[in-house]
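Aim 2, interim progress. The first record below pairs a target sequence with its C-alpha cells.
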Amino acid sequence: MSLTSVSVARLIPSQPFETLADYLAVSPGGEGLRAARLVEREVVIAELEASGLRGRGGAGFPTGTKWRTVVSFESAALATSVVVNAAEGEPGTFKDRTILLANPYAVIEGALIAARVVGARSVTIATKQRFTDVVARVRAAIDEIRGAGWLHDPTVGEIEMTVVEGPAEYLYGEETALLEVLDGRPPFPRIAPPWRRGLVEVVADDEVDSGSGLSAHVDLAVEADDNVAPPVLVDNVETLANVAGIVALGASWFRSVGTEQSPGTIVCTVTGAVSNPAVIEVPMGMPLRAVLESAMRDLGQPAAEHAAGPVNGLPGERSIRCVLMGVSNAILTSDELDLPISYEAMRARGTGLGSASFIVVDDSTHPAAVAAGASRFLAVESCGQCTACKQDGLEISGLLASMVAGTADPTDLGTIATRLDTVVGGARCSLATQHQTVVRSIFDAFPDAMRAQAAVNAEPVAPYLVAELLGIDGATATVDESFADKQPDWTSAGRDSGQAPAERLDDHRQPLDVDGEST
C-alpha cells in the first residue's frame, strides 16, 4: 500500500470538470458504466467486495456487502430504488459538496451503475434546498447525461433521475430520516432499515403498514415478510464517486493506495483554528498530522516548521487543544495527531473516522465551550421521537451552558454524568450515542479544566459555535451562525414552544419546507 503522497486526485480533479466532455476526456470517465452494463450484476458486486470500498458517509460499512444485501431483498412486485445521500450536515464537513461541484459526473455514473446492479428504475439525488450552487450544478450535469443517453439502461429501460431539495435539519442526513423526507414527511428516523423498507410505501392494501402509530410508522421487517415492499439502496456521494473507477480499473487499482482494511482515498475537511481551511483527498492511512499541516501553514512556509502542532501559521503563538471529529465521534487530543486516518486505527483508539471532518480547536478555547457547542447542536437537532434523547440531551446542554457562563455548581458534574448514561435510552438512531460519546470524551480528556469550570463563581469563558459548514472560500470557512437562534422545536422564532419537533409536527405527515422538483 502506498502512503507516499499527501494529496491524490481520484475524486476531486485538479480543475473542476465543467462539462461531460471534460469528464469523458480523462480516464476512466464513462468506462465504468459501459463495463457494468456488459456483465452480470454479480460480477460488479464481487469487484466491489474485492476492492474493500467502505461507505464514506460515516459508518464505513462495506459497500459490496450493502449492495448484495439490497439485491437479496428485492421485491417481486416493485423495483428497488437508488438514493444518493447528498444531505451533508455534519459540522465541519464540506467534502460531498466539493465533489458534486467539481465532479458530479462520477457520482451520477456510480449511481447509474448501482441502479444497474440492484435493478432500479429511479435514482434520487437528495440534497438540501440551501445548497443552491450544488442543486444547479447537479441538475445541469443530469441534463448533459440525459442528452448523452446514459439514462437508458438496456435491461430496465429509461431511468428516472430526480433531484430533491430537503430541509436544513441535521437528521435529514440519517438515511432512514432522509427516506421519510422523500416520502413527504419530516426527517424522523425510522426503525426499519432501508433494505427492508424502501423509498416506495406499499400501504394501499395494508401489505406493509404496521399500524404501529410511530412517527416513522413502520416497524422492523422480519424474514417472514411476503417481500412486497421494495428495498432502497442509499449511498453517500463520496461512496458512489468511487464506484465507476473500481468497475472500470479493478479492485487492485483501488487498493493501490490506502491500507488493507481501509483501501483507497478519503476526502477530508479541515477547518477551525487553521490558516487555510481545506478539503483535501488523501490516501487512507495517512497520519492525521500530515493532513492538518496542509491547512496550518501560511503560503511559503514549509510544513516542517509546524510539526509540533502550531495552528495559525505563527509558530509558538497557539497550539492545538483537540480535534473535534464533527459531532459523531470522540475527540482527539494534541498528542494523538500521528494517528493514521483509517477505520481500523480510529476504532483501536476508541473513536471513529466518520465523515473525515477535522475541526481544529486551539488553546484559546476552553474545553467546556467545545462540549457545550457540540451538546447544544445535538440537543437542538434531536427530533424528540425518543424522549431521553431530547430531554436528557437538553439538560446536558443547559448545564454545560451554565459552565461556560460561569454560573454552574459542582453538583452539576454528577447530573451531567447521570444524563450521559440515560440519554441513549430507547434511541432509534445514533444521535443520542453521539451526544454521549462526544461530551464524555471531552470530560475524559480534560477532567481538571472541566471540574474547575464547574466551580462556584468560575470565570465565564467564550462560547464555541458548533454548526453546519456553509462554505470554504480561500482562508475563510463559513459556519452557519444562524444556528445560534435555532430552537429545540426546530423554529427560529426566538422562543421555544416546549414541544419536540415530533410533537409539534403532530400529524407526522406534515412536510418541512421541501422542494421536491425533479429534473
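The second target in this work package is listed in the same format:
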Amino acid sequence: MHRSISNSLKLALITLCTLFVAAPIICAQAPKFSISFSKDRSATPLDGRVLLLLSTDPSDEPRNQISISYKTQIVFGADVDQLEPGKAVVVTDANAFGYPIRNLRDVKPGEYYVQALLHRYEMFHRADGHTVKLPMDRGEGQHWNLAPGNLYSKPKKVTINSSTNLSIVMDQEIPPIAAPKDTKYIRHMKIQSQVLTKFWGRPMFLSANVLVPEGFDEHPNARFPIMISEDHFNHDFEGLRTEPPDPNLKPDYSERFHISGYNRIQQEEEYKFYQTWISKDFPRYLVAQINHANPYYDDSYAVDSANLGPYGEAIETELIPALEKQFHAIGQGWARFVYGGSTGGWESLAVQMFYPDHYNGAFVACPDPVDFRAYTNINLYKDTNAFYLEGPHTKMAQPSYRNYLGQTLATTQSVNQYELALGSHARSGEQFDIWQAVYGPVGADGYPAQIFNKETGEIDHQVAEYWKEHYDLSAILQRDWATLGPKLRGKLHIYVGSADNYMLNDAVYLLEDFLKTTTNPPYDGEVKYGDKAEHCWNGDPNLPNYLSRLHYNTQYLPKILERIAKTAPAGADLTSWRY
C-alpha cells in the first residue's frame, strides 16, 4: 500500500511538472549558493551584480573563461542593492539568470571550480532627472573580470548536485591600475569634461594616448596634421615598439587569424613601424588614440546620445582642441583625419558626417552596422524577431558570429543570453547593450529602451524608428545628402571583408548602393571589399589581414597627403611639419 501511494505521488508530481514547468521547487531542486563579502573589504553596503562562476577547466580562474564562444564556461548573475557586509545573497533559480545554461537546476552534477565576483555599481543622479546604478569604468576598459574595486573569491573545487548549499565569501579585491607613463614618442593627456560632468552628476574624464613624431621636442614651432584614431579603450598607445622583437618570446596561436606565432609577428610589425616613424624622410604628424570609456561600455561611439550624454560634443569641443593645443597641431579641419575599425569604423564615419567640417577624410574599416536594414543580419524595420527567421511552421535561429568558413559560432539569442547573465538593464558592458544605449531613447526606468526583448527577440519597431532618425548612418546620408554631400565629397573611404565575422559587410552593401548611384554631388570616395576577408579588413588588397590590420597608422598616409595637397587653403602650413 505504501509503495502504491508513493508511486501515485510520483505520478502526480510528474503531471504537475508537465503542466507547470516554471515551478522549480516542484520540478527540480536547484543548488543554492550563499554569497557575501567580508567586512574588511567594505564597511558599507554595496550595489552591483553578483556573478557566480562555474568552470570545468583548471587552466585559469573561472572569471577569465566567460565569453560568447561555444567553449565558454558558466555564469549566473543576480542584482544586489545595498548588500550589507557579512550578509549573504542566496543565488538560486528564483533570482539568477544563467549562461550558457539558463537555470541552476540544469547544471550537470559533477566537480567544478567555483568562484564569485561582485561587479560594483555606483549611483548616478543624471541631469535628465533619472537616477541609475551603473558600473563606472575604472581604467580597465569596462571588463568586469578586471575592474579595480570589484570583489571576488578564490576559485574552489567542489562537487555540485541538486542538494548543494555552498557559502562563498568574496575576500579578494582587484587592485587599481597604474596610469601609463610618458616616453619620448608616446605621451598622455587626461581632461575633465564639463559637459559630461554636468550630464552624469559626477566628475567625468576623457583621455588620449598620443604618438608624437621624431623631433617633436626639438621643433617647438612646427605645427602638425593629426590623425584621430577611433578604437576601443586602450590603456596605452598600441602599435609602436622601440625595441627589437623578443627572441625568447614563446609563440602563441591566433584562432582569429589561424596562424602560429602571431605574438611574434605583432612585435616585428610594431618595431618596423617604429623604424619607419623615425626615418629621415617620413612625414611628421600626430596620432591620437582617444579614450572615452563610460558607465555602459569601453567606448561612447563618439556621438551625443540620450543615455550616455554629450560625448560627441565633449570630444569635439573639449578633448580634441585641448590635444591640438598641447601637441602643436595645425588645428584646422583640412589637417585633421579620422580612422578606425569595427566600433572605431562606425565612429569614423559618424563623426565625419555629424561634424563634416571638422575632418578632411574618414577611413572606415569593418564598421559596426551603418544601415539598420542590416543590423548584423537583422532588418530592424521589417523583421519581427531578432533571434529567428520565422516561417509558417518553423523558425530558424540566426547567427551573430561566424568563422571564415561560414560556420555559426554564436547565435544572436546566445549572445544576448550572455549579456543578460552579466547585467540587467543594458549593464553587461557588451555589444548589443551598448548599441541600444547609444542609439536608443531613455526608457521609463532611466535605462535604455530595448530595441528588442533580450529573452524572446521580439523587435520594438517604435524604438527602431528612433534609431533610424538619429543613428542609421545610411538613412541619414540619404535624407540629408543635399546638404551633407558637398561637405563629404572625396572624404569617405570604406573597407570591409566579404566574410566579416559579424556580417557587417551586409550593411556596407546597402550603403554603397546609395553612394555609387548618387550624383548630386557624387561622393567621389571609395568602398572596397576584401575577398574572403574576416573582421576587421582595413583595405589593403596586397597583404593578408593579420598583417594589414597592424598598419593602420601608416596605411592611409599616401591618401591623406594627397588630400592635404589638394584641399589645403591658400597660405596653409605645408612645410613646418616636413622637416
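The two ends are 101 Å apart (CA to CA). This observation will shape the mutagenesis plan for the next reporting period.
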